[in-house]
Amino acid sequence: MNETTSTSQPNFELTTSRQFISWLKEQNISLCFSTYQTGKVFLLGHNSGDQLSVFERTFDRPMGMWSDGQTLLLSCLYQIHQFKNSLESGDNADGYDRLFVPQISYITGDLDIHDLAMNKKGQPVFINTSFGCLATSDAEHSFQPLWKPPFISQLSPEDRCHLNGLAMKDGEPAYVTAVAATNITDGWRDNRRNGGIVMEIDNSEIIANGLSMPHSPRWHNGKLYLANSGTGEFGHIDLNTGQFEAIAFCPGYIRGVAMHGDYAILGLSRPRYNKTFNGLELNERLEKENIEARSGLFVVDLKNGGTPHWLRAEGFITELYDVIALAGVARPSMIGFRNDQIRRVLSMAPFPT
Predict the structure, then answer these.
(1) What are the residue boundaries of the structural domains of the chain, listed by start?
(2) What does the alpha-carbon distance between residue 176 and residue 28 come to, in Å, rounded to a whole number?
(3) What phi and psi, each to the nearest 5 degrees, are found at residue 200?
(4) Would you state the pLDDT for residue 285?
(5) Spelled out in words, what is the top-level CATH class assigned to the domain 11-343?
(6) From edge to edge, which strands make up the β-sheet containing 309-315?
(7) CB of 285 within 8 A of CB of 232?
(8) Closest C-alpha among 244, 289, 291 to residue 271
(9) Does residue 198 contact residue 208 with C-beta atoms inside 8 Å?
(10) pTM of the model
(11) Deepest of 109, 146, 177, 298, by most Cβ within 10 A of its Cβ?
(12) What is the mean pLDDT of the chain?
């Protein structure tokens, strides 16, 4: 029996498992997810009445997200937005304990930016999927390339391998995922079922292969976790053997992973039944077991592979891209660009000493 639902428009409903909100409170976290399919970012927490708090903002093709609880990065169609929490510790704005205000926007052009993060120097680093490289922002150019797979002979906007996922380790980029090690325009589409790879950035070596459309690698507690999206499995890579070890199966296309303690929060999408998604093991398994694909969030217990908590998105949301967890935050909010609220939220730095 589902206990908690939230609706914001007629064709949209979020439904949660019985203990989802209690779990958020126990873990002292809130969650955010992006959906470029609908141009929305959703921030999920709980209000004083222990009800699900749903806050949304509209952006142009929002995808990758990263946050340390005070700063938040969001990649969009041709920009990276950097938000800053404007509230002091213990303050709130209309019951929200975070108010992320946009402060900096990097104009990148359409690079099809997927995963992104902030390195320990305070610079945004991101997967430039269109050019097939790791990159950062630049004051004079659309981007500054930092690294590329050695099998990519030339940086050009051809999406040759569909480089997509980024795992940070000790504040620096460490691992990436790609759908295939191909070097021709859009070549990855012919290798979707088992051409996926994981690469270590430091030595530019492929450390795992034979994956199916891998996404969202995350380094957590000494392990490299990722989504083997084409099979619907979440697990980790054995760094000694290069084998993918599945932990859990989820009824949807996994894309977007947030790690917190003993849990992974996964974003699920309903597969598009077109050339990109047809022929994947995920679709075959769903059909064989007579399971309907879901969109929403699944919480995986890393200790036993169970999925005790979930949030289901019904209606117009069918695809998610990224998920982040905000530790120590109960009810987040953010300022967008589609109304004049951004004109009225002002702050002033102190005089220099």
Answers:
(1) 11-343
(2) 29
(3) -90, 130
(4) 93
(5) mainly beta
(6) 4-9, 12-16, 309-315, 296-301, 263-269, 253-260
(7) yes
(8) 291
(9) yes
(10) 0.93
(11) 177
(12) 93
pLDDT of 48-97, one tens digit each? 888 999 999 999 999 999 999 999 999 999 999 999 999 988 898 899 99
The amino acid that residue 55 corresponds to is F
Tokens (6 digits) for 214: 């891998």
Residue carrying the six token digits 């380094």: 219
Separation CA 239–CA 217 (nearest Å): 13
Is residue 256 within 8 Å of 266, Cβ to Cβ?
A: yes
